[in-house]
Amino acid sequence: xxxxxxxxxxxxxxxxxxxxxxxxxxxxxxxxxxxxxxxxxxxxxxxxxxxxxxxxxxxxxxxxxxxxxxxxxxxxxxxxxxxxxxxxxxxxxxxxxxxxxxxxxxxxxxxxxxxxxxxxxxxxxxxxxxxxxxxxxxxxxxxxxxxxxxxxxxxxxxxxxxxxxxxxxxxxxxxxxxxxxxxxxxxxxxxxxxxxxxxxxxxxxxxxxxxxxxxxxxxxxxxxxxxxxxxxxxxxxxxxxxxxxxxxxxxxxxxxxxxxxxxxxxxxxxxxxxxxxxxxxxxxxxxxxxxxxxxxxxxxxxxxxxxxxxxxxxxxxxxxxxxxxxxxxxxxxxxxxxxxxxxxxx
Length: 346
Hints:
Layout: H1 4-12, E1 17-21, E2 32-35, H2 39-51, E3 56-60, E4 75-78, H3 89-99, E5 103-105, H4 127-130, H5 146-154, E6 158-161, E7 179-180, H6 186-196, E8 204-209, H7 215-224, E9 226-232, H8 240-246, E10 252-255, H9 259-267, E11 273-279, E12 294-296, E13 315-316, E14 321-322, H10 332-336, E15 342-344
Parallel strand pairs: 1-2, 1-3, 3-4, 4-5, 6-7, 6-8, 8-9, 9-11, 10-11
Antiparallel strand pairs: 12-15, 13-14
Helix pairs in contact: 2-6, 5-9, 6-7
């Protein structure tokens, strides 16, 4: 399968990123080629680059089902069996952008290479276009994702989610998701985004569950950069720290209720790839209620609203009251309270 003409045509169309899996190709000058372990990683990395407003080319050695996702920068996928009828990649990218969808192309067609165009694209925050809907409206009390999104929202980080409970980061009070394509996509999408916008490694993070990690996505992220937050809900499986180290990422490990530690880890300056592992048991696994609960001291409370910004269902009111029946005893509210108005219930 010859891809040289397609790559040259993509370069002429202003595309500078190629995510390839199962094929060998020679890139043109200034064209960055990322070799991905699997098609899934390559496709979602390209969608991450599209989120950044860049055009991205995907070259696959096998036919796969493509996601039904909107695009911003344009995504063209070369794979066996595709029948897109375009004279050039410029035409294909234009169709992707105008149709707001990924386009699939035959890899061996005779694509024209017009005069070279400079790379174009600009990031526009449009989270409503890229975040999946979630049937639930709020996290459970004691959810290990809560501290992560509390810190991300406080620091105004650009955040890419995954699936499951990570989608709740897009709900109030956090409103912290810029994109979320579904389970097992966050690390690859982050890699594509930072490949397209290298300066974004300082203020961009992705949030994923430990069970959704893949070695291919982690290796790609180690090459491009960005902060990946891994929530280990202790539902079984291997140790995510070992997987990260095997892929070239030295992880920082924290407890899920260490809200201040998570904030400090996300605030730390970074110019490359890093992993932050947040460990905490899924709240749905608790049986028989919490062993401890918390309460507020009205004489100390200044009604600053810090505990309310955690979005915990157990906390309500401007003069916050903690419902002992709902409290999971995680202690996050006590950690964020700056006037020591929240204490363990006697």
